Amino acid sequence: MEFIANLMDAELDPVEWAQLRESEGWHVLGCADHFFSPTKTYPHVWVTLAAMAGATSRAKLTTSFANNLFRSPVEFAQASLQMQRISKGRFEAGLGAGWEKAEAVGADIDYPEPAIRAERYIEAAKIVRQFFDTGACRFEGVHYDIDVPRLGPIPPEGAPPLVFSLGGPRTIRHIAPIADRVEVKLISQITRDGAVNLPAMASVPESHLHDLVRRIRDVNPTVPLSVFILCSAGGDERTKGVEALLGDSFLGGFYGAPGKVASSMMKLADAGIDRIEVSPFTEASFSALARELF
What we know:
Blueprint: E1 2-7, H1 14-24, E2 28-31, H2 45-55, E3 60-63, E4 66-67, H3 73-86, E5 91-96, H4 101-106, H5 114-134, E6 137-140, E7 145-148, E8 162-166, H6 169-175, E9 181-184, H7 206-219, E10 225-233, H8 237-246, E11 255-256, H9 258-266, E12 275-280, H10 284-293
Parallel strand pairs: 1-2, 1-12, 2-3, 3-5, 4-5, 5-8, 8-9, 9-10, 10-11, 10-12
Antiparallel strand pairs: 6-7
């Protein structure tokens, strides 16, 4: 099992953070692609990952996940190829549909209904796949009309693995077949309206994970599978509050004592998961979980 540590706080020094996480044993270092939330600011995804690449030597690096609402798929492909080059082959290109409404509206970026977001995501996935496979793209769709004769260059290590965060039947059907890795988005329905509905997480059963895995396997039987896990490990008041809110539900297992959270994560291997993106509510969770996982 591999684990991703996901940086989500612009107040932290990305160089120090990346070096500490690598020393703790984390296999992959990610950076979330958000602008802001009511409680914090986020680091810029490409600037931060470039700093991490220069500060580390072993850990892989990934976008967790680049937001398709914010960025052209041409820019995403260009930046990904360059990240693969400067990291000497340690980068994995993660692209997501985009889900948070408040920051898109606050930044004066169009926030379409879920069906349109899915359509745009499917087209963007095909565009980036073409760039990674050929170094160029000609594509005419409903949302994108692309004619780029050359992009790159493709680095000596090859294009980075292309990773997609998928949770809906339509995106699974159209995107999973062209993915190098799929991250199973367990809470896609919880974020469908543009914000995390935390209490509703208690209603997500373990069977939902197995259903999503089955749907992905139906269209791509061999693709490696990751899962995105919101979590919090420790005895602080926030962690205890969320643990109490979610109770003994499936997702409630990812809140509370570090040993409990780590055990819940390791059990995900039973569903065919070989990598977990760890996105905690508290920064202290990373060190606490590292002592249990590595």
